[in-house]
Amino acid sequence: MNSVVGRARIDQWYRRQDKGEAFLVTAYDDKSRTIEIQTFDGDVDEIDEEVWSTLPLELAEPPENWTGPVDDVEVDDLGYTETDMAEADWSAPLQPLAPAGEAWEDTTDETERDAEGEGVPEEELALDNPISKARLS
After folding, report:
1. How many domains does the chain have?
2. 7, 25 in Cβ contact below 8 A?
3. pTM above 0.90, yes or no
4. Which one, 17, 71, 112, 120, has least CB within 10 Å?
């Protein structure tokens, strides 16, 4: 047997030291005495038990991204996203959204605006107010 890793273990990842290729042992066939493997790219192969013992192998960690052998996987199918929510997020009552005002919009109430809709003047001119005209005369 391989002196570094020993017998092949099903569901264990290994790396070939000579090629740098990682693979997963998927099964062992007692009848043919072969070890069935699958590479990260999805390729399936068999290794004879005698050849296994001569390969320069080391144990490897499973890849973080398991989608290598699977075609056309969408990010949403992975089970994790940047927008994961906790149960508390789902059970919290909805809060109404206040519409955001634009910087150019005048927030003055319409009743406080002058006749042209331009807003209230900073100071009232004496000639604009008929009561003030009476006092001036």
Report:
1. 1
2. no
3. no
4. 71
Query: How many Å apart are CA 94 and CA 44, to the nearest integer?
Result: 50
Residue 75 covered by a domain:
no
Cα gap 57→15, rounded to integer Å? 6
Residue 90 three-state SS: helix
For the stretch 63-83, what's the b/e string if a residue is b when 16 or more beta carbons lie within 10 angstroms of its beta carbon?
A: eeeeeeeeeeeeeeeeeeeee
User: Which residues have a Cβ under 8 Å from the Cβ of 112 and sit 6 or more positions away?
Assistant: 119, 120
Report if residue 21 sits inside a domain.
yes
Q: Which residue has 């107010």 as its token pair?
A: 129
The answer to the question of residue 93 being in a domain is no
SS3 23: strand
Using CA atoms, how far apart are residues 1 and 7, in angstroms rounded to an integer? Answer: 6
Domain that holds residue 20: 1-63
Residue 31 in any domain: the answer is yes
CATH number at residue 44: 2.30.30
Q: 136 phi and psi, to 5 degrees? A: -70, -25
Write out pLDDT tens, residues 104-122: 666 666 666 666 656 555 5
